[in-house]
Design goal:
Elements: E1 13-17, H1 22-33, E2 37-42, H2 57-68, E3 74-78, H3 84-98, E4 103-106, H4 121-148, E5 152-157, H5 170-190, E6 195-202, H6 212-221, H7 240-251, E7 262-265
Length: 272
């Protein structure tokens, strides 16, 4: 086998949640292209309360195959980020297999839709548990390994909805704002240990996270809210690869002095 070409994250070992498809798959493949070894984690099941299906174990295995084709090591684990103990065990086992960790990408997320008067307590619990507490669980499980490596990078995927008051999915907007506060607090606390913590804020990305009721609500009930979702640049959505390039930068040594950043890859939706 030919030796692996040097890349922007050569030798770095990265855990990625929500890795079976969509942005998670894109992050994993892009990092592997640039020399990273990857620990892939996904629930590979669809929790009750979602309008759209999540990825399958077949999807996760396919992501692992795509990563392996880049020449690096890859480990894949089926795990729910809401289960802190199971996630810690999965990350500990995967880190042992890879020889440690240098970075984590808390990417797993779900979306529910509803006006304020139709949003349920069950929707709040699901979205906050996955999007916010799941991101915290990922950071908490990865951090001992980053500290053992002498530092590293935590990249927490937020959203344009984590910067502006995007309506019709209030639990999602609240959780994505919560990721920013959590990340800023961790960035302050961990700077002395050379751990950098940043957030990435995409606009819409075609990943399969697409509840049909969202379009119906905007078109039929609240067309006045449509402009809030419009990008400044003349595109309807960005691509997962554009978000992955931001993740790559934040994990690479090019961003060695970057921490506490809210990195927008949003086609200007947050300046509107």
């Amino acid at each position: 086998m030919q030796p692996r070409a040097a890349g922007r994250v050569s030798g770095k070992r990265v855990v990625i949640t929500g890795a079976a498809r969509g942005m998670g798959r894109s992050h994993a493949v892009r990092l592997a292209e640039e020399g990273a070894d990857c620990l892939l984690i996904d629930i590979c099941a669809t929790p009750d309360g979602l309008e759209y299906p999540l990825a399958t174990e077949e999807d996760l295995h396919h992501t692992a195959k795509l990563v392996a084709q880049q020449g690096g090591s890859v480990v894949a684990k089926v795990c729910d980020v809401r289960d802190a103990n199971a996630l810690k065990a999965a990350i500990d086992e995967g880190a042992d297999e890879l020889g440690g960790l240098n970075a984590a990408v808390a990417n797993a997320g779900v979306l529910t839709v509803g006006t304020w008067d139709t949003t349920t307590a069950e929707q709040w619990r699901l979205v906050v548990d996955v999007n916010l507490i799941g991101a915290w669980n990922t950071c908490a499980a990865a951090l001992p390994h980053l500290l053992a490596a002498g530092g590293g990078s935590l990249v927490n995927i937020s959203s344009a909805a984590g910067i502006k008051g995007t309506p019709l999915h209030t639990p999602y907007t609240a959780a994505k704002h919560g990721i920013v506060g959590m990340s800023l607090a961790l960035a302050n606390e961990l700077a002395a240990q050379n751990v950098r913590v940043n957030t990435v804020h995409p606009t819409g990305v075609p990943t399969g996270m697409a509840p049909a009721s969202m379009h119906q609500l905007i078109v039929e009930k609240r067309p006045d809210l449509g402009p809030i979702f419009m990008n400044a640049l003349p595109i309807p959505m960005t691509e997962a690869s554009d978000v992955s390039n931001a993740v790559l930068f934040l994990i690479s040594d090019e961003a060695r002095h970057v921490t506490g950043l809210q990195f927008t890859v949003d086609a200007g939706v947050t300046i509107r």
